[in-house]
Design a protein that fits this description.
alpha+beta, Phosphorylase Kinase, domain 1, 8 helices, globular
Length: 267
């Protein structure tokens, strides 16, 4: 019998770990995994890592919901953004009537709508990957503020994003700090912190303000780049790099613990 949907790939395996395999493919994926002991052990390690992350965040999930994250506050925030969006659409229509190019109008109107349609973790992952791909290959100016000004970098990012944000020390994971930069994050502010290992493979941490809710780290692969994405205290976080899930997960653990420690120190 042939496999429905084509050969089993890495996306199927990651979906199998997270319990998201389509029912039509589940039996084929299970047979494939159970017939390969080494693969089965690797996926078991992924599940263990996922469960550890979930346990680490359980206390936050069980905590009372802050007032700013309650339904009424979120609804008011969305209403303000909706009114602003209607204003931009109306302005775009006027420009169109005056004879502006139809291509520009389509872009102006579809951009915000497409962003609103994306789930928050997916949007953060896409923005993080776009920034990662743009800057990691830059040999001359990969960052705005270098590692030699580490204290200034942390203060600068915290000030611009209006959050107390440390620059994680990932040296124990084999990565040295290169530096960071401030980026636009749609209607909000964002920052990128860049690291490099001994093989000159680069990894970035992307932080975006304007997020709501709390979520545990989720593995997302987008455009050939692996990410672990989570949300907490009004920010979305993404660790991005071309590394396997296990290694990126270890780095994500280290960064998450340091970010969480900084958050706990404020309370």
């Amino acid at each position: 019998m042939s496999e429905p949907g084509g050969p089993i790939g890495e996306d199927d395996l990651q979906a199998y770990v997270d319990g998201r395999v389509a029912p039509s493919r589940l039996a084929f994926v299970e047979d494939f995994v159970h017939g390969n002991p080494a693969l089965e052990n690797r996926l078991a390690a992924y599940r263990s890592h996922r469960d550890q992350l979930a346990a680490r965040l359980r206390h936050r999930a069980e905590a009372p919901i802050p007032a700013r994250l309650r339904i009424a506050a979120i609804a008011a925030h969305r209403n303000r953004r909706h009114r602003a969006l209607l204003g931009r659409v109306a302005a775009a229509c006027l420009i169109f009537t005056a004879g502006a190019g139809t291509g520009w109008l389509a872009n102006a109107m579809s951009g915000p709508a497409q962003q609103a349609a994306m789930s928050a973790p997916d949007q953060v992952a896409q923005l993080a990957v776009a920034a990662h791909r743009l800057f990691v290959s830059d040999a001359a100016h990969p960052v705005e503020v270098g590692a030699e000004r580490g204290d200034h970098l942390a203060n600068w990012i915290s000030t611009r994003l209006n959050h107390v944000l440390p620059v994680p020390d990932l040296s124990a994971n084999g990565f040295r700090l290169i530096g960071g930069r401030i980026l636009p994050g749609g209607e909000d502010a964002a920052a990128q912190i860049m690291y490099e290992d001994a093989q000159h493979q680069r990894l970035t941490i992307y932080i975006k303000t304007g997020e709501t809710g709390t979520s545990r780290p989720e593995f997302i692969s987008h455009a050939g780049v692996s990410t672990f994405v989570w949300r907490d205290d009004g920010c979305g976080y993404a660790i991005a790099g071309k590394f396997d899930r296990a290694r990126l997960g270890q780095v994500s653990d280290a960064a998450f613990e340091q970010m969480e420690a900084a958050e706990d120190s404020k309370s």
